[in-house]
Amino acid sequence: METKLQSKQQYPRFIQNKPCGIDKFDGGSQERLAKTIARHFCQNDSLDEECTLPRIIGIEGIWGSGKSNVVKMLERELSDDYYFFEYDAWGHQEDLQRRSILELLTSKLIDDGILSGNATIKVKGGGTKTVSWSEKLKYLLARKTETVTEKYPLISNGMVAAFLVAVLTPIFTFIAYAVKPTPTTWWFSLLSIIIAALPVLIALCVWKWAYSKDHKYGWSYMLAIYQDKVEKDVCYETLSEDEPTVYEFKTWMQDISDFIKEKGQRKLVLVFDNMDRLPAEKVKELWSSIHTFFADSGFENVWAVIPFDETHLACAFGDETDEQTKQLTKYFINKTFPIVYRVAPPVITDYRSIFNKLFVEAFGETENEAKETINRIFRLVNPNANVREIISYINEMVALKQEWCNEILMINIALFCLKKTDILANPVEQILSGDYLNGIQTIINNDLQTQREIAALVYGVDVEDARQIPLKKYIEGCINGEEDHDINQYAETNKQFDTVLEEVIQCMDNALIDKIIHCLHKLTRKSDVILRVWQRIAQLKLKESIEKQVFPVEYQELLLHLDTESQNHVIAQLYKKIVRFNDFNGGDYFKTLDAIDRFIAQNKLACDFTSLIEAKTVKPNTFIDYIQAANATDAAYRDNATTKAYKYYQVATNSEALDNYLANLLPDNFDHADIVKTLKDNSTYTFPTLLQAITNCIDEQNVNKDNIGAIFTTYRLLASDEERPLPVTLDSTYINQLHSELETDGRNIKESGYCTSLIMVDLFISN
């Protein structure tokens, strides 16, 4: 039945989760069970006391099967003759159970007028006392103390002073009389008075001083002294405490039973709910009390009803899956309950019907189109759900519907509530892939609207803003190299991919540009939007300076995805960065340009790289590095492989400076015969200074086993054909010495490169 509050509410509205005492199943199984139990109550109480069964029953059923609802229906059936009190054992698990039961039960019985008038209590030390039930409860639960007090009055400072004044005043009066002469004068009389009053005067001075230190020594304190009041005691107490015992509990319940019979009140039914939710030790403790009080002799006018789930109850006795634990649980149940009634779970027809009834109760007729689909997917995902779980599910939908109104379809709200755990475990992957729809994918499609609305529910943003969030986060994960992220996974299947990708790139930090290039290089999809993305990436990349003269792999990957115009622009800008590099290196320069050249040729890019090359004059040492790198390059990929490689990129140096530089390397640091050989046929470069320096070295025999090869090879290259044999040579003795040194040094003369030079020298000498 709807409450007045519910009838005034608009849909959607929350469903009451408490037992309502109404059997909503089509089969009426709960109603039938409640009537059966009610019949047992009446029949058992109609028998003679010696023929009755113990007034305790068990109601067994899985959690959420409707045990509490059966109890409510039972209460309705027996409301005329039985008073029901429900004790939530789970809610009072931190309390002392016997004390908590008595306190709650008695207070409720008093408030509802079941216990009224006076009752008798036994007073400690013997005797009885007539009190109200409220006072009797207080007496039972109160901490009872027995106090033995011993008092020892203390003599205060004031009492001591008063005693001294009383004793000393007569003495000083006698002294004053003794010292007074017979013929007296006025001042002797005054002196006698002062002497007699001296104790009082001293006492008043001391009192005034004490009062200045502490104002408690006022006139009231003086009066207290003279009225024999004692302000301080030393007390010793002996305490003893009592809590309600098993005997007291049983006696109390018996008193209630007797009172009910005497006054003709309704019989009491105690319902111990949620006992199977307690920790193991608490279950055993409460079970022991219930068995002690109700399973044996029990009480004539008190029933006990214990709803429980056997599976969860078994946890108190060990592993619920263990066979021995199951048997032990059954033993305790059979030992405690003479009768156990079972609440059957709903059948399929009930399941479908109860879901629809509860759904209509929450949403009215406003969501009829979605009702059957929601009912169906819920039953597919939760084939064994109970009523409590159905109510919880529908209330969760109500909460979201109230929040989002008509912004999100009811079916998607239901879908989110149903699959929330799977979705939130990995929202991006789940929303995009639709894996969370496993089992219901034939009913619900993972279309763009579903993705958008589920994303809005996950991230709590407007539906329009949420449409791109899952894909956006997935692309960001791909760029950041997260595990199990493939940029191609949704590129073809998700219609928003190109748009979202462009938005992600626009919003990404420029510091991630290299990661973006590496990620998108793996993307196989081609489109105008993706080309536009690559063009933007190229613009961002070109804004970066280069750290060294190389052809970075990022530029290589970038060039493969650009149009011809953009490719030429990127190569031209990269070339400028390389040729104008601050720490210019001739060898790196040649290698980098050669790598670009090869890349263009291998990938058949429509780029005239040669036209970009500009002449560059460098220092001799840089030029030497450039020549050496060029000499080490395989130029076979070029159409004109006969051209010397160093000529490709228009690097030059001053001939005279190069000549002087090489000459200054003699004799010990010269090892550049290859440079002279490469440039020998280039009329731009001549080496007169180097030739003269070599001639001087030979003439002065400033040649050793380390430099003889380079010196004589260069000498041979630079000497004209007319100067044969060479005008300056080493004598045979020195040559033999060099041979000996090389052999002693353990070198292979052929491998050292000196063999040809020495043979050549020998030939020149012989000539």
UniProtKB/TrEMBL annotation:
InterPro entries: KAP_P-loop, P-loop_NTPase. This is NTPase. It comes from the Bacteria. The chain crosses the membrane at residues 160-179, 185-207. Residues 52-399 form the KAP NTPase domain. Keywords: Membrane, Transmembrane, Transmembrane helix. Coiled coil: none annotated.
